[in-house]
Amino acid sequence: VCDRGFPHDFSTFSSEISTATSKCDCIDMSSIRIGGVLSDPDLGEFWKPVWEAAKTAAADSGVSLLLDPLERPDNDFETEHTKTAEKVRSLCQEGVDGLFTSIKSQEIADAVQYCLDLNVPVISLNSGLQWSQSLGLTQHASQVEYVSGYGAGKRMIEAGMKTAYCVRFFLDDDLYDRCNGFRDAIDDLSAGETTFVTDMAPHQGWDSKQSFKSHVEETIALEGDWDGIGILLVSDVFVDEALFLK
């Protein structure tokens, strides 16, 4: 049996397994290079456990992990998507043995196809289920966005929501799916007692925490008690500010 450097105790395995002869050449795990292209973990709490999990998996298996923070200048998501696509192509050109990324746009999907054409295996995570399926990737690690939005709607209806808003912070097909699930839950489960008002999308003015707060309050435009109003945030951006809306 090849020693692949895993920090585990194999002494409890049966003698039949432990003395088996491998029919494959042993692989030096340290020679395997895995590339990752993800958002900078300092941009929000969401990505930090993903980064830690990737680093832990690489350390446990003994592979080399090429994972650098991907900056997002001034919350410019289109630029981030372009930088993601460029980094994906660059890693595959360098000859990584595998790659993982979040497929948030057609531009990134095209870069993933480029890697597949070079016979570099790719898995996707978080965003991009539909692209993952169309590209024929072996695995997509994520929640199903529509189902998560639907579940959020169900729980908020049960909590007494009567008027509903969905807030997206950037143009991403997965976030449309979350809002669509939220809206459908209201149609299916509220017996007409909850009204879906609008899907708030980002615009030029959403360049600060205060402008986000002002825009949401102006859209809802309700003085006095906000009892019964439900707001689904489909990203962790501006969560703290949302807690202090009227």
Automatic annotation (TrEMBL):
InterPro entries (alphabetical): Peripla_BP_I, SBP_2_dom
Coiled coil: none
Record-linked Pfam families: Peripla_BP_4
Tree of life domain: Eukaryota
Domain Periplasmic binding protein: 44-213
Name of the protein described by the UniProt record: Periplasmic binding protein domain-containing protein
Organism of this sequence: Grammatophora oceanica
